[in-house]
Amino acid sequence: MTTVALKPATMAQALTRALRDAMAADPSVHVMGEDVGTLGGVFRVTDGLAKEFGEDRCTDTPLAEAGILGTAVGMAMYGLRPVVEMQFDAFAYPAFEQLVSHVSRMRNRTRGAMPLPITIRIPYGGGIGGVEHHSDSSEAYYMATPGLHVVTPATVADAYGLLRASIASDDPVVFFEPKRLYWSKDSWNPEEPQKVEPIGRAVVRRAGRRATLITYGPSVPVCLEAAEAARAEGWDLEVVDLRSLVPFDDETVTASVRRTGRAVVVHESTGFGGPGGEIAARVTERCFHYLEAPVLRVAGFDIPYPPPMLERHHLPGVDRILDAVGRLQWEAGS
Amino acid sequence: MTVMEQRGAYRPTPPPAWQPRTDPAPLLPDALPYRVLGTEAAAKADPELLRLLHAQLVRGRRYNAQATALTKQGRLAVYPSSTGQEACQVAAALVLEERDWLFPSYRDTLAVVARGVDPVEALTLLRGDWHTGYDPYAHRVAPLSTPLATQLPHAVGLAHAARLKGDDVVALALVGDGGTSEGDFHEAMNFAAVWQAPVVFLVQNNGFAISVPLDKQTAAPSLAHKAVGYGMPGRLVDGNDAAAVHEVLGDAVRHARAGGGPTLIEAVTYRMDAHTNADDATRYRGDAEVEAWRDHDPILLLERELTERGLLDEDGIRAARDDAEAMAADLRARMNQDPPLDPMDLFAHVYAQPTTQLLEQETQVQAELDAEAAGPEGAGR
Ligand SMILES: Cc1ncc(C[n+]2csc(CCOP(=O)(O)OP(=O)(O)O)c2C)c(N)n1
Fold first, then answer.
1. Would you state the pLDDT for residue A240?
2. Fold of B25-276+287-335
3. B96-120 pLDDT, tens per residue?
4. Out of 3.40.50.920, 3.10.20.30, 3.40.1390.20, 2.30.300.10, which CATH number does the structure's domain A203-326 have?
5. Of the partner residues B184, B352, B355, the one whose CB lies closest to the CB of residue A70
6. Closest residue by Cα to residue A120 from A140, A144, A98, A136
7. Known active-site residue B63
8. Distances from the Cα of B212 to the Cα of A261, B180, B284, angstroms
């Protein structure tokens, strides 16, 4: 066996390792997409897989996203476990009809007879200087589609653990990979036995007592940075990393907000109609009597994702998060 | 040598990377739709097969009539009839081996039934129930669905997967003429050809997509010609000649099974009924056009062949009709019973394990049902 990851490993390397381990463990796992074979994917996440497992297991498909997902449906019907790579967030849209009309509902409409264990990997989010159509945060569309799981890691270890769990899941999973974190590193050790994280559990990334930042994916490190900065100003903030938008872990989120009494939801996706609205509503429904202030949102603006030259004005940053925390009606009470 | 000195000696060459690819000539469809009945080829057709096709066509026509009648009685939410297209429907089912897969479109419940699925189960979706009825794995028939052409890439993927696993399984996918304009048709054809997947595409060109005639759908020489652009053979067949459709489909299925890759078949046929029971076809086509097709009816063509050759007599025809009547009576009786409906089922299969949110919603509906059962007093209102 060759060793893929160096120490410390990047998120991209952990994802590669997860794919490789899944393919080695289960011959029904097939990776497919544009440029995933010889090139190893534009982000190199499938690097080496075609070489190790052959082109029938890691396949360069024609350039057609509906065709990729549509044929993956047929492959899953015949007992394979396709892992589909969409090259970029905005280039997953052509596959939307297959996703909504078939992938998400096949189990349901066949009363469980025909589950579709397909994992759809989508690199998403901004902050990498990408030109138009390379930085969308499209998770709200997928969250609004019953039958899909929507998962996104924020740490190197979760990238491995959640991708393994997604591939093992008997339900279709839309697996959002934060592009900005592909090259992030942490102390994840590829030599150690790896943990497969269950889908649907949020984690408290940083414990705090005064307010909860509820976030996921690329905004998790930003929130941790904000929490660090807040400490200097006397605010002790908790950071909850959702990891899975569907299923949604009401339990962890509710427990945190009931403890702290204040909450800000942070994400890159647009605020209007974005995930934050759903999350704020859920928190309010469950924590009303514990809340000292309305649940606030720090989100991308309601504009098409801006060009890289202006994207820093759009992305939720530390200052904007701290401003929101500052507006949580501190004068009123605790 | 300067460029001027080279003149005369210079021969243009193709661009460096250019290579001749697939020769298109063998892929081209015939100029006329292929016919068997009434031609010399009919003599070679197996009489048993012709009689079987006949019985199935008669049954199929009765099935369509019965299903349409059930819409009038409110027992079906909608029915897209395949009257006039029975030859395609029946041949598609009969040509497959048990291990093969059929991918129907929404108008193809007759093909599904001819494959062996219980008609009541085949009509589940059109009845307005929440699921697709039959177990797709029991007869290897993909679940019926209405988004046009989306089943085509599924057929390609399944055929590809079977080949990867070393199984000699063929997938046959049905689509309408309108469906060939969809992007999924193009993508499926292209994937199938690139992967050399063992899949056969049968386009039933019945002249219309609801109200839109073929001329507004495509400028291609024929729908079968589209195959050539993908590098697969295209075949043009008379879709009302059951023997011809069966033969052309059979050739394509054998070709696919032997590793020869996909085929696109265009069957020229006609939708005799309106698009569905809810449609008014007089808004877009005249009686004369429909009448012309009555002389080219699939049952008529086959009965003429069989009776002229002494392969079928009045008794045989009556037996086929009696069998069809019995099927219709059974369908009518069973469709007149309400299907079992449990609102709790709506939450049971969305995921392998229901989410906590779905469990909460299920509880809510259960409480509503309990209150309903208890009546106004029990509900405390
Ligand atoms: C993607 C999609 N668009 C529109 C429709 C609505 N619709 C249902 S049937 C139909 C016409 C289909 O024509 P054709 O493919 O020729 O099949 P036919 O009805 O003749 O069998 C249309 C437009 C649909 N079901 N799916």
1. 98
2. Rossmann fold (3.40.50)
3. 999 999 999 999 999 999 999 999 9
4. 3.40.50.920
5. B184
6. A98
7. no
8. 61, 13, 8
